[in-house]
Amino acid sequence: QVQLVESGGGxxxxxxxxxxxxxxxxxxxxxxxVGWFRQAPGKEREFVAxxxxxxxxxxxxxxxxxxxxxxRDNAKNTVYLQMNSLKPEDTAVYYCARGRDGGxxxxxxxxxxxxxxxxxxxxxxx
Length: 126
Fold this sequence. Notes:
By secondary structure, this protein is mainly β.
């Protein structure tokens, strides 16, 4: 069983930056793609960004391209999401998830992920 713990959320103003972290309990985490998703109140969970196991390829939702950057430090079993130029519409609970065995790398589809964290809340005020 893999445990994922997100951190770094908070209340910020529009235009500010935050860096989210996703720390894993298992070193095997480093062998899998990792994705970030978010869910705003009353809305479905949506894809934000994903990264393959060695950081060699990334994938972003159009809504965050140019503002968010996903990266990973496999020595620390941690994946990061740097969020710049935050907007009120970025307000959501952010979740990280580990890719499933044999899954499509850096996918935008929640089905391609098995283990999920509990989420960290990001609130952006206007």
